[in-house]
Amino acid sequence: MVHMPIASTTPRTPHLLTVGFDLDMTLIDSRPGIHACYRALSERTGTYIDCDLAVTRLGPPLAEELINWFPADQVPAIADLYREMYPVHAVTGTLAMPGAREAVAAVRAAGGRAVVVTAKWEPNAKLHLDHLGIDADAVVGNLWAEQKAQALREHGASVYVGDHTGDVRGARTADAYSVAVATGPCDAAELRAAGADVVLADLTEFPAWLSDYRGDYREAVRA
Fold it and tell me: Are the C-beta atoms of residues 160 and 117 closer than 8 Å to each other?
């Protein structure tokens, strides 16, 4: 059984469960698609981009990667170009992470809502979910790290699942239970050090964890 967090991070009500999910490297393996998009961007602009390196550090906003390859004053325009090119080059090459659909289904089976909160540009995030048949109740994009707390609070999320230390910070800022999956650029030790309440190997472990978590909460309420 899991250990319940302090009162500030317990679910807000015993009846309505809302779970937030990060997107890249949590619900989707976007590395092949993003690699292809960076390669096309490099060819389009004539600027070298180490695509292999770029896809090892997914999570932070796009501008934080582009600044490594383009002058700062060009980054906003290049970011717009990348987003314009993204649907053609990145969507069909992206895969669902193992257990992603089952994790969302587990939330639904528990009578809850699944909300995707991501740093990715929202229209492209929705394209990924539509293409892969991952049916979220809401999608909020363009938010990173602590900024994610805004959407998590607005949707009443009591749990946030992500693969990056920035996702842990977002969960903690929102007073949500931080569930980390070691499927992205941050390993389990980094995620624990950042303050994750629990670290799972991947989302295939999430349905069982959720069942235990809800059981512990019900016991706490009865007590």
Answer: yes
User: Number of helices (H) and strands (E), helices first, in the chain?
Assistant: 10, 8
Sign of CA dihedral 147, 152, 154, 158: negative
pLDDT grade for 3, boundaries at 50, 70 and 90? very low
The pLDDT value recorded for residue 111 is 95
pLDDT at 215: 81
Q: What is the identity of the amino acid at 205?
A: E
Q: Find the range with the poorest average confidence among 3-12, 159-168, 210-219.
A: 3-12
Residue 223: name the closest of 62, 14, 53, 9 by CA. 14
In contact, 131 and 156? CB cutoff 8 Å: no
In whole angstroms, give the CA distance from residue 184 to residue 161. 12
Cα–Cα distance list, 158 to 33, 113, 182, 221 (Å)? 31, 11, 20, 15
Dist CA 164 CA 166 (whole Å)? 5
